[in-house]
Amino acid sequence: MAERGVAVDHATLNRWVEKYTGAIADKAHRRKGPTCRSWRLDETYIKVKGKWTYLYRAIDKQGQTLDFMLSERRDEAAATALFSKAIAGNGWPDTVVIDKSGSNAAGLFHMNCLLVMNSWCWLIDSLQVKYLNNIIEQDHRFIKKPTRPMKGFKSFRSASAMLAGIEVAHMIHKGQFAKAGKSAFQQFAELAV
């Protein structure tokens, strides 16, 4: 921007992030490739207005991002909301690996109850095996690394927008939209159009 003679303040960039990141993240979820039917679900802590909030994240067994959601609470409703959002964009999983979190187990139980009520003949298997969840624990690093220097966010809305942008950038880095000969910037430009 400076090369083109346009003076841009950091607050302007922040407003652009808040305004456009949601639309870019939605387009990214529609354009990502197919994923595996074995999922890993976990949450990590993010500080917003001095209080800890929870970033729920779901990836498949190959490390491809399925979905993510920022929640003020760590409870069954938040876990169920992430399951519903991830299932809407990726289909039903066969297996979900979770940690010992009661909220994730309750959310998965709720989804299985919905399957039974709709007369489905199969349920989602739930595994609580610590070492199988290591892949998502390691994937949290790519969220924590850029957010740690920020020392938290001042509003829930800006945190959601910024985290959506970080997740989309990480999805590009993982190659979830990879097209032959396209750079990361070209992939982002296609999402931003």
From TrEMBL:
One Gene Ontology biological process: DNA recombination
Q: GO molecular-function annotation terms?
A: DNA binding
Q: Does the keyword DNA-binding apply?
A: yes
Keywords on record: DNA recombination, DNA-binding, Transposition
| TM region(s), chain numbering | none
Domain DDE, residue spans: 38-176
**Pfam families for this protein:** DDE_Tnp_IS240
Which residue stretches, if any, does this entry annotate as coiled coil?
Answer: none
Q: What is this protein called?
A: DDE domain-containing protein
